[in-house]
Every structure is written in C-alpha cells, then in structure tokens.
Amino acid sequence: MGMNTSAWFRIVFTAKLLAIIALTSCEKDIRLNIKDEGGKLVLFAFIQPDSSLNISLTKSTGIFSTSSYHLIQNGTIRLYRNGFFTGDLPYPNQTTWGNWPSIRFKQGDTVKIGAYDDAENLVTGTTVIPYSVPIQKIDTIRETIPGNDGFPKIMMNLGIHLTDEALNNNYYQLHLFDEYWKVENNILVHHYDTISFSKDDKVFYNQDQAATSFGNIDFQGLFTDQKINGLNHRLKINLPISYFEPQPEITNRHLRIVLYHLSEDYYLYMRSRIISNAYGGMPIFEPVKIHNNVSQGKGVIASLTATKASLTIKQP
Amino acid sequence: MRMVYPTKRVSLLFLLIAFTALLAAQQPLPQDLLSKEIRVTMLTGDAVTLLKHIEEKENIIFSYSNKVCLPKKVIFHQNRAPLKYFLDQIFASCYVEYKIRDNKVLITPIKTSDLKLTIRGYVRDGITGEVLIRANIYDFYGSKGTISNDYGFYSLSLNGGSASLGCSYVGYSADQKLIELTGDTLINFNLMPMPELEEIPVFASHIPTDVRSTRTGTIDVPLNQIRNIPSFLGEVDLIKSVQLLPGVQSGNEGFSGMYVRGGGPDQNLILLDDIPVYNVEHLLGFFSIFNPDAINKVTVIKGGFPAQYGGRLSSVLDIRMFEGNQEKLKGSASLGLLSSKIALDGPLIKNKTSFSTSFRRTYYDILTAPFENDKDERSNYYFFDLNVKLNHQFSPRNRIFLSNYWGRDDLSSRYNFKQVTQAIITGEEPEFDLALNDEAKTGWGNLVSALRWNYLISDKLFSNLTITFSDYKFATSQEQNYYLTDSWSNISRRYYSGIRDLNAKIDVDYFPANGHQIKFGGSYTFHRFFPGIDVMKTELSTNQKSDTTLGGKAINGNEYHAYIQDEMNLSSTIKVNMGTHFSMYNTGSKNYYSVEPRLSMRILMTPSFSVKAAYSLMTQYIHLLNTANMSLPTDLWLPVSERINPMRAWQTALGGEWEIDRGFSFSAEAYYKELSNLIDYKDSQSFFDFSTSWDNKLTSGDGNSYGLELLLHKKLGAWSGWAGYTYSISTSHFNQINNGKAFRSNNDRRHDASIFLSYIFNSRADASLTWAFGSGKPVTLPSEKYFAPPLPTSSAISSDYSESFSKRNGYLMPNFHRLDVGMNFHKEKSWGKRTWSLGIMNLYGRQNPFFLYFSDNKNPSSGEITRSLKQFSLFPFPLPYIRYTIYF
After folding, report:
1. Residue B1's CB: how many other CB atoms inside 10 A?
2. How far apart are CA B409 and CA B731, in angstroms?
3. Quick one: average pLDDT of B540-557?
4. Which stretches within B69-166 are classed as H helix?
5. Where are the alpha helices (DSSP H) in B150-294?
C-alpha cells in the first residue's frame, strides 16, 4: 500500500504545524537538575556461528555531552562457552570494535560475555546461538497485479518455503539481494544490491491491526513465528518482473535470499532501534526504550544464524 | 427442661395461622360490602337522593354527619358496579373515608391536614421557558423541600392545608406561592432572571442546594460566568473553562484534554443530552466542540458518583442543551477572529413545541479562497458545529425531545496539477486539455442524536426513555492520478477509524415521600469499533476497477447497565444517597460484569454548613489507544478483549460545603482513589507498529491518586468569580514499564490553582480575568547516551548513539502560569443588544512549556558546540482577541 508514514504526517500534522506557525511559538534554553548518568560500560556482540568474534566495548556519556559515547582504555573481555570460562581477552584501546578471528562459536552454543575496565566494574550478557532454519524450496509464479500507480504490473510471486520449529518462539529476518555483473565503461563491475520488497505476507504485519496506509514502520524484514508456529509456510514476496528478465549488458545474475534465524535479544534490540529511529526524537511521543540485556551496564549480547539460497536468472 | 424442636415449632405456627384464617373466613370482611356489585336505576341527582336510592335498593345503611360535603349534582356513568364505585362518584370532589359496621357504611370527612398530597410541576426560566435543573423548591410551613431533576421536574409530598411554597435558583429572582392544598396539585414555577447587579432576595430558612445535596465532588458549572471568561481567539470554550475548576487539569497548555483526579482523558464520560461523545476536540485540541450558545446546564462529577452513572472511571461531564424559548423567537449572532456563530430558538407551536439551534463555523478557508483560486496548489481548513434540539409537549404528562449535534474538522490540500487530454480519460473524441490534480483530505467529527420521551406516570413517578446514536469517525484519504502516454489511472486510498454506539435506556424517578427519592433504570449499548480500516480503489482509463480493503475488522460489543439508588433523609440533618450500579460487557466470546456500590452521605451541621462523605466503585469497558502522549483525533477507542480486562477504580471522599453568605460559598474535599487494570504501551511498543496486534502491545497496571481540593466561589453580585486550589499526588505502577517500579502518572501535577474574577461596572460594561497556575508536568527525559552500533542485518538506522531513560516521568517541566483579561461592552438597541468583547490572552507573555528536547548549539564565533535542554512554548506573547455579538 502506498501512503507512507511521511504522507500521513504531512496531512495530519500539517494542521498542527499550521496552527503553531500561525499562532507563533518559541523555544529557549532551560535548566533542569538532570542526573548525569554517563560512565557505564557498554557491551555489544552479534555472534554468528563460524564467524570471527567481534565485540564492542565503550562507555556511555552524560546526556549533555556533545560526544555520542566514550572509548575506553584497558578494557578486558571475559568469555564463557556453554558455562565454561574460556579466558580473558585484552580489549584494544580507543576503538569501538575488537576482533578475534580465531574465536568461533557453533550453532546451539551458549555464549556469555563479560567485560570490565580499570574500575573493575563487570558487565555481562548471554546469548544462545540459534540453529539455522533451512529454506525448503523456492518457487516462482508470474502474475499480473495492480501496481502502486494503478496500472497492471507483471510481477514475480516468489515463494520461500520454510518450516518453523514449534517448541520455541522463533525470530526471523528476510533479506533479498540482487547480485549481478554489469559491463560499465568496458569494465565488468560486480553489484550486490539490497532489494526492497513490500511486506505483504501475513508474517510481516497484523492484518487485523490498524491500517498499513496510515503509516507503517518498515521493520526491514523482521518477523516472528506468532502466526506460523510449527507450520510449513510459503513466504510470499512480490517482486517486479524486471529482476527476473534478461537485461542487456548484465551477465551472471542471481537473486540471493538470506533467511536469518535471530536470538530474541537481537530481534528486540533491532525492533526498538527501528521504532526509536522512526519517531526521530519527536517529543509528542513517549520515548522508546531500547532493548538491553547487559546486566550492570548497557548493550546487547545477541546472535543470529543465516541460511542462504539463490535463484540464478538466465541471461542472454 | 423440655426441648421444642424446630420442626414442631413450624407445625404449631402453621396450625395457628390456618385456624386464624378459618375463623376470619366466617366474618364478612368490610371490603366485601364495598366491593359488592350493585345495580342502580337512578343515574343522576344530588348526593342525598342517590344515597337514599342505594339504601332502598340494596338494604344498606349510610351514616354521615353534616360535616360531610354533599354535592348537588352527581352523574353515574354506569348502572351496575361495586358499591365503592358509586360512593367514589358521589364524593369525587370531597375527602371522605368509609368505615363498615355490619351492613352500615359510615362516611366521615378527612381533615385536609391529615391528607398526604403531592405537589408536582416544572421549574422554568420565566422568559425563555428553559427548564431549570436542580432548582430548590421548599415549603416553609412544613420545612420540607426538594430539587428539580434533569428535566426541571419536581415532586413534593405535603400535608393538606396551607402551604408556603418557595422556589429559588442561582441567578434568578426567587418565587413564593401561598396555597391552600386540598388535593394533588400541579404548580409550575417560572422564575425571572435577576439583573446581575441586584441583591438577591433569599428566604430566611433557605438551605442552599449545594449544602443540602449529598453529592461530593460535584460542581454545577456556572455557565453565566463561563461565558465571560477571557478566551483563546475569542472562542468561549467550555472544556477549558472546566479545566479552571479544582480537581480538573489540562494536559498541555491550550489543549482540551481533561485529567480528573489522576485519570486520563478516556476516563471521562462526556454526555451531551445523555449521549456519550467520544472526541471533544476541534483543530487537534485547541478548541472544544461545545458551542456555549447551545448549552443550558453543565455539571462536573469527579467523585461520589450517583448510581445512575457508569462506564467511566474518573468523571462525568453532564451537558444539557437548551430546549428553546417557549414564548418568542430569540437569537444571537457573533463575529470573531476565528469563527462566526448564530443561534436561534423559539416556539414552533406556542407552549407546545419549541426549538433551539446554533451553528458555528470557522472561515479561514472562505476568507482565503479568493486568493487561492488562481493557485494550482492550495490547502483549506475549517471546522463547524451544528446543534439542533426540538421538543414537543403532547400533554402535561407527555413530552418528547430530539437532540442533535453534528460537528466536523476538515483539512484538505490539492496539488500536482497536470494538463491531460480529455481523450485519455474518456477515450472519446475530440481531444482537449483538462486539468487534473491530486488531493489529500483529513477529517474527523461526531454525529450524535437522541430521542427522549418524558412521561409522568403519576404525580410521584417520572420516567425518561431515551434512544441515542453516537458516531465518531476519523478519516484520511489521498487521491492520486498517474498518466502514461495513452492511459490514465486514478488511485484513491482511504483510512478510517472510529466508534459507533446505539443505545437505549430508561430512567425512572420515584418520589415516595418527602426527602425520599428513588431512581432506577437500565440501558443497553451496542458498540461498533472501527480500529483502523484501509480501503484502496483503483480506476483505469480502460474501465478496469478494483477495490481492496485492508486493516482492522470492525469489532462489536454489547454493554449493559442497570442501577437503583435511594436518596433519603435519615433525620433532619442526615441524608444519604445509596445505590448499586450493575454492568456487564459481552465481547462475543467472554462476559465481564461488575457490581458497583455507591454511597454518599451528608450531615447538616448548620443550615449553611454540611459535611459530606462518599464511596464509589466504577468500571470501564472501553479504552483509548493513544497515538502520542497528547490527545489526537487518530486515537483509537477499543473494547476489552480476552486479554485486556476492564479498568476499575474505587474512590472515597470527605468534604464540607459552607455557604458563607448569599451566593458565596466555600467547599473543601479530600479524596483517595485506587485504579486497577489501567493500560499503557509496553516499553518499546508504539501505535505505529502494525506488526503486533493492539492488545499485545499493551500492558496493564495499577494507579492511585489522592489530594485536597478547595473552591471559594462567589456566584452573584457586581464582583463574582472563584478561586480554586488542588493539591494532588498520582502514581502508576506497571510490571512491564519502568522496570516494574512505580512512577508519577502522566499528568501528576502537585499544585494546581486558578482564579477567575468578574466585575460588572454597570449595565454597559464588565471585565474579567483568569489566572491559572500548575506545577510542572512530569516528563521522561534521557539522562545518558551510549554507542549504537550498526547491525549486521540492518540497512538504515542512522544515529550512532542511543539515549537511555533511567525513569519514566522522572523529571518535571517548569511551572505553568498565565493571566488572561477581557472586557465586554454592551449597548441596548431598538432590536436588542450588541456586545463588543475584547481581551488579551497571556497578558504578561509567559513562555509556558509545551515540550522539552535536547539540542546541540554551535557558537557562531568560536565554533564551540554545546548541548542544552530546550523548552518549546506555544503562544509565548500576549495574544489579543475581539468579538462582536448581537442579541435579538
């Protein structure tokens, strides 16, 4: 559906804005006794199995600071795998991310990450790396449906078949990429573009909920198994036929499909970041609380596993 | 000692009763003679002749003294009937009683002072015929009194004989009638409005209505004063005036939200002639929908709810529209900066049928139209209100009313003008250019209607049957045209939400004795909720059409209420109002029900001072899903569900009412209130997340509120006005919000004060001022920033930091205060009166906080960046207004 958030805001809040402008308003600096709570350790890790370990350790700042965060000195990372201590790692000074290529985890591992600095304030967070969810099958159906401009459009109805595991709450994210090689100025250039697709499948939004044209937030392909728990499901994605038709100067084209199986903390953190970003700090909304699972500090220790599939597009 | 077993006792008792009954059956019962059917052949004559005729025909002896009145002419309309029928016909105009001795009938006169008689009638404005609600009616000889009900009706039981009946109402000259009561009597009072500067004649033994009433937490809004309150752009606003009363707070400056004793705006039952109104805001809340020209009476109930009210937790705003002048056509017209108004009322059939109508419309769009006509892109905004009320009296006992309100806000814009060939659209020759444009519209409004039948069943039984319809709808739509070289498409998208109610209810007032009033009734409401529905229509030049409907399905609900309440004098000083309200809500798959006791008590310490106490339990089955933290027309009304339970609140209050002098009173009231099953969004959830069902986004919690409210009120005289003060504390607690810790409720303002003063210089000029103060409103502010890393699977989350909030509503905005002044200049004209109203809002230019936010500032000379907390203010300077009104 077409009318997006900005359209709605343009229509409805224009009235408010007009009134405010007409009646004039003003702003001024004020002083409130705001508690400065900066200085907490902030720990992030988004662990993917069989990938090198990346961990971020920073410090928070007070709200009046012009810096977004503080880098730290002399930090230490403490790792546990499946309940066993595996060692302390010195965190590189003055950087947002530390990387340990040799440390890798497997699906199903329980990973606990702790961190402390000179002040020896230990913060910790835990995640269980989810198992990958296989893509059972991909199919395509060519169909003609009205486009956003009302004119009939030939679309490719792409079906991605998956089986949800019934015993646990599962969290997913779907990404589609258009990978191709194109001759540009006599040079073959590799492209890997993210495909923005409409979230019409029932897993992406609640059809009984308030209207999509009213201004939906794009959750970038996040979904849960709330409606497909324990079921086989064909994820239906409508894509313009142009992605599937031979194009001059393009060779070797693939539709890459990535289905992420997310830990709950990853899902909740990403959702809260998206909502917070969508509201853009507008003071007429109650501030959104960003998800946090790091005790004694801030941040998220989360994990995800990717399943990949692809469709090769025949080129002339 | 011999034991008597219970079974034996029962058997003995049964035998005794049976034996007594057997004996009684052998004796002719007195009523047997009176009910004995007799036949007469003489159908007319004087009383003595007819009595002799019956004696001769039926062998009955009548015995009566010369004190019994004996009518000269009596006509029987039938010749065969019980004896009592004929006696009643003979003594129809006299008060006698019959006693039976064997076959003798003793006829004795009854002293009029022994008679229990009922006086009933209506209290009305002597000029307009409008009913006066809660007027005081008092018999000075018998020291008995009552008040008129919501329809101006009263019923008073008195002994026969002399009575001195007085009637008074604030702002009206009192009326007193000396009468000799010999039977049930209809006495209507038509009180004359009092010139505002005149002193008030009040009966010496008069006990003021507010002192006498059992009601706590109830304020009869002084409409005459409210019409003089300085107003935003000259628009007198009922809701904003109510916000100046103690216990009622506004959400944000300049907005119409009402927060009563710690409750939210959805916890107020706003009734317009008994019809619930769901959205009371124009221009996104800057104005309320109620046109004061159409309003007769407004009552705010904040606690001590009588059993007749139910369905909301925190307040009832009971608004009654004018019925219409019974005597002659009257009207007013008014021209302001924002809107113009016209009101007309008068008789359609004199003393039978009258009407009252008022219309208000903004004219920004009309004024700007000449300048916009040539533009390809233009925007319009307007709102209007239309109130129409009709009433017809079929007989003194039967009257019907039809009340209607229709109001709407509309914002529209046209853009993307294109010249296209007509042949593309119609496919017909010849081709010529046509201008097409895209269009966006947003609107919201209420349509409410009530049909009411007042029926006086007897002198002591008054019934009111009402059928109401209430429809609130918000809609936004967009129409776009797309063009290809030889074809064209038109897409229209529409989103709408709202609530529609159909209600039937009956209320019965029963006046069994003096100082004793029983009220009972019941109602059924069919709710239909529209929780956001999308409709997309596509039309192509190839004549292909398609409709798609998405979004929420309409939800139906059935709400039932029944109540009974009894108000009575326990002694000369103690009066109680006790009752029970029953309610039930059926979601289709689940039933919720509630039994709600209500109790109010008043102790008259002196004729001018009373102490009152009250307890009430309330239940609410529908709630408002807010779009933002201020009221917006997009907010969704939704019912309880299998997961969302009804909200409940109990409240207790203790207060005193003191009439210091005539029309000058002081009241103080302390209250404590607990609320449960309140709903709010979970942390990290929002209205615009449509991937989650609405009841999954919500969490429930509890709250409490307590405080003290003081009101000093001078209602009459050259100087009039009030000073109100509220001290209150309101706290909320949700397991899934604020880490499960209690926090200040959204509108928890510790101190709230207001002063309204009005001075009448003479009949040609008056002035008024209001000053309002509120301590800072709670606000959630971040106290910390921290790293927000890019996510491996996210494409566009822009900010590199997140903000952390240590506590919900953990800070307070700066205090709010504002002074408004206004003057009215009146002049009598041959055709009526004209009034110029001038004033200034925010006289000393106070910058009150609307919202707070953090911002980086760059020093232009040094380039240094600093970060500060900023306050955004609306109307930060003196804002003048002017309005011209004529009355004819």
Report:
1. 2
2. 35
3. 72
4. 83-90
5. 209-212, 223-226, 238-242
Residues from chain A contacting residue B782 (CB–CB below 8 Å): 63, 287
Task: Specify whether the CB–CB gap between B875 and B254 falls below 8 A.
Answer: yes
Please work out, in degrees rounded to the nearest 5, the angle formed at the alpha carbon of residue B34 by the alpha carbons of B29 and B35. Answer: 90
- ipTM (interface pTM): 0.91
- Residues 198 to 227 of A: which have CB under 8 A from any B CB? 204-217, 219-220, 222-223
pLDDT in tens, B594-640: 999 999 999 999 888 999 999 999 999 999 887 777 777 888 888 99
Which residues from chain B sit within 8 angstroms of residue A96, using beta carbons? Answer: 787, 789
**DSSP for A45-80, written as a single string:** EEE-TTS-EEEEEEE-EETT-SSS-B--SSEEEEEE
Question: In b/e form, how buried is each residue of B705-736, taking b as 16+ CB within 10 angstroms?
Answer: bbbebbbbbbbbbeebbbbbbbbbebbbbbeb
Q: Which residues of B touch A14 (CB under 8 A)?
A: 379, 411, 413
Give yes or no for residue B535 having a pLDDT over 80.
Answer: no
Q: Which two tokens stand for residue B602?
A: 């008043």
Cα separation, B408 vs B382, in Å, equals: 8
- Please name every residue paired with B478 in a beta bridge, in sequence order, or none if there are none: B440, B493
Q: Indicate the range of A119-123, B192-196, B406-410, B425-429 predicted with least confidence.
A: B425-429
Q: What is the dihedral of CA A223, A229, A234, A239, to 10 degrees?
A: -10
Taking only the tens place, the pLDDT of each residue in B744-777 is: 998 899 999 999 999 999 989 999 999 999 999 9
Which residue in this structure is represented by tokens 């939200």? Answer: B257
Distance CA B695, CA B799 (A): 30
Report the chain A residue with the minimal C-alpha distance to residue B798: A277
CA-based radius of gyration for chain A:
24
Global confidence as pTM: 0.82
Helix (H) or strand (E) holding A42: strand A41-47
Query: Which residue would you say has higher pLDDT here, B654 or A152?
Result: B654
Asked whether A64 and B867 are in contact (CB, 8 A), the reply is yes
- Among A16, A60, A228, A256, the strongest candidate for a mutation testing the B interface, having the largest count of B CBs within 10 A, is A60
Instruction: Tell me the C-alpha distance between B291 and B268, whole Å.
Output: 19
pLDDT score at B59: 82
Contact state of B785 with A216 under an 8 Å Cβ cutoff: no
**Proportion of chain B above pLDDT 70, given as a percent:** 89
Q: Hey, which residues 5-24 in chain B have their CB within 8 Å of chain A?
A: none
Is the omega angle on the peptide bond into residue A130 within 30 degrees of 0, that is, cis?
no
Kindly state the average pLDDT of the residues A152-173. Answer: 92
CA-nearest residue to A207 within chain B is B551
Return residues 106-145 of A near B (CB < 8 Å): none
Search chain B and give the residue with CA nearest A16: B284
Q: Which pLDDT score, from 0 to 100, does residue B204 have?
A: 43
- Residues B257 and B277: their CA atoms lie apart, in Å, by 14
Of B797, B733, B747, give the one whose Cα is nearest residue B775: B747
Give the pLDDT confidence score for residue B10 in this predicted structure: 40
Kind and range of the H or E run holding B817: strand B816-829
Cβ separation A150–B865 shorter than 8 A: no
Query: In 3-state terms, what secondary structure has residue B224?
Result: helix
**C-alpha dist (Å) from residue A15 to A25, A222, B411, B445, B841:** 15, 33, 7, 15, 22
Average pLDDT taken over every residue of chain A: 86
Residues whose CB is less than 8 angstroms from the CB of residue B41 and which lie 6 or more positions away in sequence, other chains included: B53, B57, B79
Say if B453 is an interface residue toward chain A (CB within 8 Å): no
Strand order in the sheet with B784-787: A61-62, B784-787, B801-804
Closest CA to B542 of B427, B688, B419: B427
